[in-house]
User: Fold this.
Amino acid sequence: MTPDTRRRTILMSVAAVTGVLLLPDRKLSAQLAPTPHLDVPYVPTPQDVVDRMLDIAKVGKKDILYDLGCGDGRIVVTAAKQRGARGTGIDLDPARIAEAEENAKKAGVSSQVSFKVGDLFQTDVSEATVVTLYLLPTVNAKLRPRLWKQLKVGTRVVSHAFDMGPEWPPDKTEEVNGRRIYYWTITQAQKKAVT
Ligand SMILES: C[S@@+](CC[C@H](N)C(=O)[O-])C[C@H]1O[C@@H](n2cnc3c(N)ncnc32)[C@H](O)[C@@H]1O
Assistant:
């Protein structure tokens, strides 16, 4: 029996014995879902780095921020709570999305944000004015042509820890407590490169 199956069986047995109908609970449903294959493991960005990423991108109330691989939603929730932005978080792991929704609720920003279970390589990001990332170099490199194709000129992209390779040098980099932040803006040059 795999650890997932064992966990699911235990939770099902508890539900059966206690007579509690647990499945409609979103958090539990997320826990019962099979662990998806992740391109990047979950490691949250420290809050001081989140704050600086939003500063560097000058996130404000007119912005629509997308965090691809949003984890517990901290970047989207902070952008909404502290800067009045709207935002969307995408994560392949339903457990992360359940946490993000809970965090948005606690912060009182549920009406400004949405969180969806999905693959960042299948997500349409064309409405974003800011995109945030904390992925891996190979994942950034694979994502780059999608960003160039879908994002409008002027859209800001901020990445924690990893760059986009030699094909797209950052406009700016900064270090916060030993963590590097990379910043780009989409220009006509990128749009031309993918047409
Ligand atoms: C390093 S964590 C970053 C979390 C959050 N953005 C932050 O900075 O705190 C990467 C996240 O990407 C998610 N992830 C991995 N592969 C993914 C994929 N193909 N599509 C969407 N999310 C993915 C993981 O579940 C994880 O939550």
Summary: The radius of gyration is 18 Å. The helical segments are 3-18, 26-32, 47-56, 74-83, 94-107, 137-150, 188-193.
